[in-house]
Structures are given as C-alpha cells and as structure tokens.
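Hi everyone,

Forwarding the result from last night's run.
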Amino acid sequence: MGILIRLAVSAFTVWLATLVIPGITVDGDTGHQVLAVVAVAAIFGIVNAVLRPIIKTIGCWAYILTLGLVSLVVNGALLLLTSKIAEALDLSFRVEHFWPSAILGALFIGVVSWLLNFFVPDRGDKNRKQEYDRRQPPPPRQQYGGGYQQQQQNYRDYR
C-alpha cells in the first residue's frame, strides 16, 4: 500500500510540474493525461532507483567537488531520460529542454515530493511508533555497596 501512496504522490508532483514549469507538457484528454502522468511517475522512480546509485558511485568525485550541486544536473538528466523513454512508449509527456525545463522540473518534483511525503505517514513509520510505545522500560539498576570487595563477593554469591 505504501508504494501506491508514493506513486500517487509522485504522479501528483509530476502533474504539478507540468502546470508550473514551462517546457514540461502532457497532452491529450484528462484520462490520457492521468495515465501518462502515473506511468511517467513510475518510469521516473525506476530510472532513479536504477541509475542514481550507479551515477553517484561513478561520479562521487563530482559530488564532493561541487558540494552536491551536480545532483541538480543529474536529476535534470534523469528527468530528460524519463521524457525520452515516455516518448518511446508513446506517452504524451515531454520535457523540451535540459535548461531550464529539465533541471527546474526535477528540482520542483524533488522538493514537492519530499514535502508531500513528509506529511503522508508511511506504514513503517506507524509500526515503529507502535513498537516504541509498546516497549517495556528497562529494569532498574541494582546497586552494590562496598566497592570492589563487595562486588567480588556478590559475583561469587551469584555463581
């Protein structure tokens, strides 16, 4: 269920990006637009899941050198790649140019998705909270008096 919520949030942010960012378009009637946006959100998620770790590993030096700013370029390139895949699949989603459409679109999608996911609780978050609430408090510490000699005696008595 959590993955469907994440997909819906991603699809909503892609749709918002088509409204806000010039150069990102989705054509067709409402039904085709909804299907295209959901498919593009799924494609964008898969592209990010597969390629981003590879790019980060290979381009680790670029991330360090630019203090992470190269991630804007990488995200834009992944959005442009998603657009090309969508065109190959005959979806009506298009990103016109790398700058500013793809970079600003990827930045917008990332920030808005992060905000929406922050407010939509994940089932794992609920389970962790319930588990935390059910935990028993730790037992009280036993105090031994008398210093080292007494501790040795208590140890011998315990054995």
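The longest strand covers residues 24-26.

Cheers,
N.
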